[in-house]
Task: inverse folding
């Protein structure tokens, strides 16, 4: 496989935090979109910046810009990640993710 070939599958998730009838907060899946991208390594600069801000970047992925729909969460390898930062680079957008405590089973709705 070539270094810049798509090599990671992820599902972009749009989640809504809604209360049920007794006030408990429930995550509701409003939309999902499966895309493929290029798994990036977190650079040493990114690592040290994340140490300064106390935000540990766990996964970095580059996808085509037109595929990104503004989702703030993604499912990668059965783990839910939050989009911490985005960076547009020409026809691509880099997404930097932080792992969340949300489990796949915690989300109401169907994930493809």
Result:
């Amino acid at each position: 496989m070539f270094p810049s070939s798509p090599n990671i599958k992820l599902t972009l998730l749009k989640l809504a935090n809604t209360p049920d009838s007794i006030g408990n907060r429930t995550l509701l899946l409003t939309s999902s979109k499966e895309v493929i991208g290029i798994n990036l390594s977190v650079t040493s600069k990114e690592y040290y910046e994340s140490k300064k801000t106390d935000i540990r970047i766990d996964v970095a992925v580059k996808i085509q810009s037109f595929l990104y729909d503004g989702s703030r969460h993604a499912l990668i390898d059965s783990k839910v990640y939050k989009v911490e930062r985005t960076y547009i680079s020409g026809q691509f957008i880099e997404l930097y993710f932080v792992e969340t405590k949300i489990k796949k089973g915690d989300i109401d709705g169907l994930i493809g």
Q: What stands out?
A: The chain has one domain: 8-104. Strands lie at 8-19, 25-40, 59-64, 73-76, 79-89, 92-99, 107-108. The longest strand covers residues 25-40.
